[in-house]
Amino acid sequence: MRILFVASECYPLIKTGGLADVVGALPLALKKLGCDVRVLLPGYPAVLAALPKAKPAKNWSDLFGGSARLLTGTSRDGLEVLAIDAPHLYDRIGNPYLGPDGRDWPDNARRFAALAKVGAEVGIAGANGWVPDVVHSHDWQAGLTSAYIAASEGPVPATMFTIHNIAFQGLCSLSLENGFGLPRSFFTPAGLEFYGQTSFLKAGLVFSDHLTTVSPTYARELRTPEFGMGMEGVLNERATATSGILNGIDLDIWNPETDAELAQTYSQARLGSRSANKKKVQQAFGLATDSSALLFCVISRLTYQKGLDLLVPHLGEIVHRGGQVALLGSGEAGLERVFTDAARQFPGRIGVSIGYDEGLSHLMQGGSDAILVPSRFEPCGLTQLYGLRYGTIPVVARTGGLADTVIDANDAAIRTGVATGVQFSPVTAPGLWFGIERAFQLFSDRKVWRKLQKRAMLHPVGWDESAATYVELYRSLAGEGVE
Hints:
Layout: E1 2-6, H1 18-32, E2 36-42, H2 45-49, E3 55-60, E4 68-74, E5 80-85, H3 87-90, H4 108-125, E6 134-138, H5 144-150, E7 158-163, E8 171-173, E9 193-194, E10 197-199, H6 200-207, E11 210-213, H7 216-221, H8 225-228, H9 232-237, E12 242-244, H10 274-284, E13 295-302, H11 315-320, E14 324-331, H12 333-345, E15 350-354, H13 358-367, E16 370-373, H14 383-390, E17 393-397, H15 400-405, H16 411-415, E18 422-424, H17 429-444, H18 446-458, H19 464-481
Parallel strand pairs: 1-2, 1-6, 2-5, 6-7, 7-11, 11-12, 13-14, 13-16, 14-15, 16-17, 17-18
Antiparallel strand pairs: 3-4, 4-5, 8-10, 9-10
Helix pairs in contact: 4-5, 5-6, 10-13, 14-18
């Protein structure tokens, strides 16, 4: 099977969130199952720098306002990459979506329409003789890919579209860029139109042969007004062509036995070695080196979706109970300010680092006792999977992929030895405190806590099962979708 991924980011080349981790890891898992996968990315400076030996495969004299070329290369981890070298669209340092002022680049619609158009062209005509059986597009930035393919005449590849987070829909004016070269008939409520605007995400939902989401529960949630973000009608219409497939993580990159970012590597049989990492985390965040304190970590965007505002009223009580909090993240200015103020109010007990640091995130997973994930909605979530892998007990809201990946430590689950973390519901401030209280109770019995850690570390969080499911879908689509 030849599969083309179309995406806006891919670890380790360019990353702002979990999308990059998935697009970086899933192709390698598919490769082990015999698939030939190429990943098409915008040619951001970081991407081009990571492909110094890339070779040209195609040229355009005018790709949405300037010349461009398609480069082919291989990343250091063996990923086959196609990069769109279009300086007028992508030669910008920093965040791939935001300018220096923290706002969206004003030409984002053009930039990602170009990504989709090239994805469709490579999907139909190939690159250097390589022609995919299936084009698999990811999130709104690649949503127009399936529309361009649907507008083409002649043989076309099968198309799949994965919703990583339906909250981001790629909305722009209906008249922008003269319809991006797509047929006018596509711009209707049955097509790209979404309440008087164009939605790149809706293009993926409507024009793809098959849809996937990143967890079974999220697939069901999206068909309701509470979670569907206005797209629930479309998703109910396409329910029979939708699959919920859990994300996994790269077990080589996230491995406590070999992780170079840790102060001390460890295994399920050597959990005592985690103490060195806990001390290092406490030092990194200016916390008291108190081995007896229950150390909660937060590694997250500070946004309404992630529910971190629900944690704010409990910070003082966590400190009062003898706990500590280490937070790494950035986002809404008000939340950043509240947490940094709390760190000043509770020195040695609450530590905050605004921003993101990949190495520090590994250390936090390897040294914290528990990780808080109080998301109001969560398509899949990866930080709780890293927590399971590292024996950092997840305390999660019962929603989306969090509900699918963490087994709640209720009495029955503890007695039968299957518990891996704590779930709480409803997703409110009192609900979160109930989860935090349960974590304190579990932590107070170190024998129970150690068993919980060991069971968490045994929980399957890799790509094997999900990758096999994707291969089955690709085969089905290629048999039915290729003309």
